[in-house]
Amino acid sequence: MSAPQGFSEIRLIDPFELHVGPAYAQGGKGARRYAFLVRPHHCNMRGVVHGGMLMTLADMTLGQAVWDATDNAACVTLNMQTQFLKSANAGDWIEVVPDLTRRTRGFVFMRGDFTVGGETIMTVQSVWKLLGE
């Protein structure tokens, strides 16, 4: 299945993320929408997306948004709070528009509502440490 109209594949560079991608994006730096196609190997034994996969997706996409906001500054995830609201299945497109809620000299605060067909399946809030700050 190809990417949704207007989306292009993003270049994943983290070795772990290469195992779970690809992921897609549309829009410019600081205003991107990300998309991810759920494949059967992303699902648990009940046939729904594994929670760990969803958290990995959150880390990938919100992390990309942090890079956009900081000109690719080295950073690490300090905290990620995840609320699972609904399940997603193989074949679903999951989308998110990350939202930078606050930035200090050494920290970036992000959030995102992850949706399938316009319905929110997960919300995430995260704090990122800018290394060297």
Kindly summarize this structure in a few lines:
The protein has 133 residues and is mainly beta.
If you had to describe this structure to a student in words, what would you say it looks like?
The protein has a 4-stranded antiparallel sheet with strand order 1-2-3-5, with no helix packed on it. The chain has a 4-stranded antiparallel sheet with strand order 4-8-7-6, with helices on one face. It is mostly beta strands and 133 residues long. Helices cover 14% and strands 38% of the residues. The protein has 1 helix and 8 strands. The relative contact order is 0.19.
- Global outline: globular
Could you tell me the strand content as a percent range?
A: 35-45%
Fold-level CATH name: Thiol Ester Dehydrase, Chain A
Order of helices and strands: EEEHEEEEE
